[in-house]
Specification:
Blueprint lengths: L3 E2 L4 E2 L5 H4 L9 H8 L7 H4 L14 H16 L4 E2 L5 E8 L2 E11 H5 L3 E2 L6 H14 L1 E2 L3 E5 L3 H11 L5 E4 L5 E7 L2 H12 L4 E5 L1 H17 L11 E8 L5 E2 L1 E5 L7 H8 L3 E7 L10 E6 L2 E7 L14 H11 L13 E5 L4 H9 L5 E4 L5 H9 L10 E2 L10 E2 L2
Helix pairs in contact: 4-6, 6-9
């Protein structure tokens, strides 16, 4: 069962939401955050990327930077840029991209569910990234940014969300990137109670995006539990902020690869090596997009190629072996190009599919990279199968878009 609870959200007044709301901390660097926040003292970047308030070049992990995050969070509340609701609510947060809208419920998820594996993950986390976010949660005593969960869709929850969203939204705006963001408050007690009950019947929830934020939030909650001799179990620190979307509304976008060199091979030798495990077709100069599972797109020296994995090179009965990222990692990146560790090898970089295949072409044509590989996107079913079997996806497998906008609502741990 998925344990959730409503909470007293801290959020911007309607008139300020577009000034406060920002992209998540991990999708842009310090310089980009500084540019986006320029001239806007109300931007959430002052809390989630507080190094922008220091001289350029300041280490974002300097203790003074974390302290500044807490100072700014307090300042936002003192100035009325963030205001806490006076009762515990749930919220609906919807996003629109390319004319399609997906509807998520904003809830507090249980730390215990994360610790026991009832909130399921599909990626490994890095301890240094966890520790960074843990410091941020500790110093603010709050989950400033939500994590992105998926849950097995449920008709009655869909109906409740449809009813709530038939009314005028509390927030409704289009961000600079063109994505629409819409937000409703659920303050009816009977509706709140029913949502809690319905989630209790859902066996598990799945982390779609935000593995480091989930780990950090849960670990800090667990830390507070252990440090409190009077722990009761109902304290706010036992829960963390999540936006939960039904699995049938989510699409995973492709996550592609670019590589600096051919590991000493000529173009001809590289293509010949590929032919051992793939049917290779020259598709010419027009961009070619993979059209099915086990079909790949390769860009090399101004030409696009279709690669189709041959029978026997993959295992459709294995939740990891079926993945195109596994096939390409084993048979192309490792076997031919000598890239053994996707996390640490400096010869490879990753490009989210939101940028389009034109971005791959650009990076190869510029001479920065030698070859690009585009993959057919993973499905939500594959992600859930992997999480359910306790497996971990290879690095850089999934890309969710649109990203959650930060600053629409915050959860305090006290």
């Amino acid at each position: 069962m998925a344990v959730i609870k409503p909470f007293k959200g801290i959020r911007p007044p309607k008139a300020l939401v577009e000034q406060v709301a920002s992209r998540p901390y991990d999708v842009l660097n310090s310089d980009e955050a500084r540019a986006e926040a320029e001239g806007n003292e109300k931007s959430l970047y002052h809390i989630i990327k507080p190094e922008i308030d220091f001289p350029i070049g300041t280490d974002e992990h300097d203790p003074a930077v974390y302290t500044k995050a807490a100072e700014n969070f307090q300042k936002f509340q003192d100035n009325g840029w963030l205001v806490q609701d006076n009762k515990e609510n749930y919220y609906v947060y919807a996003q629109t991209m390319n004319g399609k809208t997906q509807y998520g419920l904003v809830v507090c998820a249980a730390v215990e569910d994360y610790m026991t594996g009832n909130i399921k993950k599909h990626e490994l986390t890095r301890r240094d990234k966890e520790e960074d976010r843990m410091k941020h949660v500790r110093v603010n005593n709050a989950n400033i940014e939500p994590v992105f969960f998926a849950y097995p869709h449920q008709d009655e929850l869909d109906a409740i969300v449809a009813e709530v969203t038939s009314k005028e939204a509390e927030y409704d705006f289009v961000a600079p990137d063109g994505f629409g963001h819409h937000f409703w408050v659920i303050d009816n007690e009977a509706t709140i109670a029913r949502i809690t009950e319905l989630f209790a019947a859902i066996p598990s929830m799945y982390i779609a995006d935000g593995h480091h934020r989930s780990a950090a939030a849960a670990l800090v909650g667990d830390e507070k539990r252990r440090q409190n001799p009077n722990h009761q179990g109902d304290e706010e620190y036992n829960y963390f902020l999540a936006v939960c979307f039904p699995d049938n509304q989510l699409n995973i976008i492709d996550y592609n690869r670019v590589v600096k060199d051919l590991n000493g091979l000529s173009d001809e030798a590289f293509l010949q090596a590929l032919a051992a495990n793939f049917d290779v077709q020259d598709m010419g100069e027009e961009i070619y997009k993979p059209n099915a599972l086990h079909n790949f797109s390769l860009y090399l020296s101004g030409r696009w190629y279709s690669l189709t994995a041959k029978e026997g090179t993959y295992n459709d009965n294995d939740p990891i072996g079926v993945l195109d990222v596994t096939i390409s990692s084993n048979l192309i990146l490792d076997e031919i190009l000598g890239i053994k560790d996707l996390r640490s090898d400096k010869r490879i970089d990753f490009v989210g599919g939101i940028r389009g295949l034109g971005e791959l072409k650009k990076r190869v044509d510029s001479g920065e990279m030698k070859v690009a590989l585009a993959l057919y996107p993973v499905s939500m079913k594959q992600l859930i199968d992997i999480a359910d079997t306790g497996n971990i996806m290879p690095p850089k497998t999934t890309w969710f878009e649109p990203k959650l906008r930060s600053g629409l609502v915050i959860h305090k741990l006290v």
